[in-house]
Write a structure and sequence with these properties.
Blueprint: H1 2-11, H2 13-25, H3 34-47, E1 51-55, E2 59-65, E3 68-79, H4 106-122, E4 128-136, H5 146-151, E5 162-173, E6 177-179, E7 182-185, E8 187-196, E9 200-201, H6 211-222, H7 224-229, E10 236-245, E11 251-252, E12 255-264, H8 267-287, E13 291-297, E14 303-305, H9 307-321, E15 326-328, H10 339-342, E16 347-355, H11 375-392
Parallel strand pairs: 3-4, 3-5, 5-16, 6-15
Antiparallel strand pairs: 1-2, 2-4, 6-16, 7-14, 8-12, 8-13, 9-11, 10-12
Helix pairs in contact: 1-11, 2-4, 3-4, 4-11, 6-8, 9-11
Length: 394
């Protein structure tokens, strides 16, 4: 069986590249993936794989039934949305859509799941159980697409016993993959604070509230949450990336906007920290004679990789690729809405190497020059199909 998976991954490699390049040329933003979904549906139809479209928007769910009797069901999820970035590339498959780009590899994820499904469909007479394919929209934008698909019942009928997902990682070389059991990726919440006061002439600060100074003090004071309130053994990040004080050289504005992100690995501490944010921001503004309007948008939870499932996936990958090409990874402070699935069913989310260190090729995710070493696609399709087959076993 392993030889068959390898051979099919090799046979379908050029098709995988073509699919990925087509998707890369035609990216669509979160909750707008209409043409992407149509393309995926057409491919599944061509492969003879029955599927349902328009699941919670543009989501697609398909089933591959093994011909040997069994009740186990393994789901595999791929996200398919792009980012609002203008691509900076001279590649022939560069994005054709202005200020929209697959800068996070979702084109690769979708291509890998499509061709992985094609491999599994070819082998369905040789395995027991059911493979459920989940093509999910809107991973990149809160509230994300995962929750909607879960609410639509994608983990039911049949009930999913375990779920797999992968994500490209340019700091790993093509041909390698990486795993981690337990908490793997952080939770992430969006922080929005408006400092509102009395604006005025900058030459007469005594007659207004200095909202710019108050906003600056707010950013500084909130760092106490990490340095003095966070449990030392729990990874915690509080960063602010946007501060808008739309005044002028001689104008203190009546309102200043602060935006940032809070990330951690502990759900209890996450809840407590958000209360600290509200308290410190409110008191800092009050001390300056202003008010703070605070909105915290709850994001994705901590991504939890099930130890048993991840260990089995790790060992399966080692047998498929050889041990030196499979590694254990560190935790990441980035977030993923795949996390929602991991709080409902046993899950394994792993990383696919897409870089090439020898050629100094490891363009960063979410950048306008992001790309992949396309040899990684063959590794992705074969390893994903093989791991799913091994998880189907009793």
């Amino acid at each position: 069986m392993q030889h068959k998976v390898r051979q099919l991954a090799a046979d379908f490699f050029e098709d995988t590249v073509a699919i990925r390049r087509h998707l890369h040329q035609h990216p669509e933003l979160s909750f707008q993936e209409k043409e992407t979904a149509s393309f995926i549906s057409a491919q599944l139809t061509a492969y003879g794989i029955a599927h349902e479209t328009e699941v919670s928007g543009y989501g697609i769910v398909a089933l591959i039934e093994g011909n040997l009797p069994a009740s186990k069901c393994i789901a595999i999820r791929a996200d398919m949305d792009a980012l609002p970035i203008n691509e900076n590339s001279d590649k022939p498959y560069c994005s054709m859509n202005n200020v929209v780009m697959h800068a996070c590899g979702h084109d690769a994820h979708t291509a890998i799941l499509l061709v992985g499904a094609r491999i599994l469909n070819h082998l369905k007479s040789s395995f027991q159980g059911t493979i459920k394919l989940i093509f999910q929209p809107a991973e990149e934008k809160l509230p994300g697409g995962a929750l909607g698909m879960i609410e639509a019942g994608v983990l039911k009928n049949p009930d999913v016993d375990a779920i797999l997902g992968l994500h490209v990682l340019p700091t790993l070389d093509a041909g390698t993959i990486g795993f981690r059991s337990g908490p793997f990726m952080a939770s992430g919440d969006e922080i929005n604070i408006k400092i509102k006061g009395k604006g005025g002439h900058a030459a007469m600060p005594d007659q207004c509230n200095d909202t710019v100074l108050i906003a600056s003090q707010t950013v500084v004071n909130l760092q106490q949450i990490v340095s003095r309130h966070a449990p030392p053994l729990i990874p915690t990040v509080l960063s602010f990336g946007r501060l808008i004080a739309n005044g002028a050289h001689n104008i203190i504005p009546s309102e200043v906007l602060i935006q940032g992100t809070f990330r951690t690995f502990d759900e209890s501490w996450r809840k407590e920290a958000k209360e600290h944010i509200r308290r410190i921001a409110s008191l800092t503004a009050e001390a300056g004679g202003a008010k703070a309007e605070i909105q915290i948008m709850d994001g994705y939870p901590v991504l939890l990789n099930n130890e048993k499932i991840t260990t089995k996936a790790f060992e399966s990958a080692q047998s498929y690729l050889t041990p030196e090409k499979v590694m254990m990874l560190d935790q990441r402070m980035t977030t993923e809405d795949f996390a929602w699935y991991t709080h409902i069913v046993p899950a394994c989310f792993f990383r696919l190497g897409t870089g090439n260190a020898a050629n100094d090729f490891k363009p960063g995710l979410h950048t306008d020059t992001f790309d992949i070493d396309e040899k990684s696609l063959q590794t992705g399709t074969g390893s994903l199909a093989w791991i799913a087959l091994q998880l189907l076993k009793p």
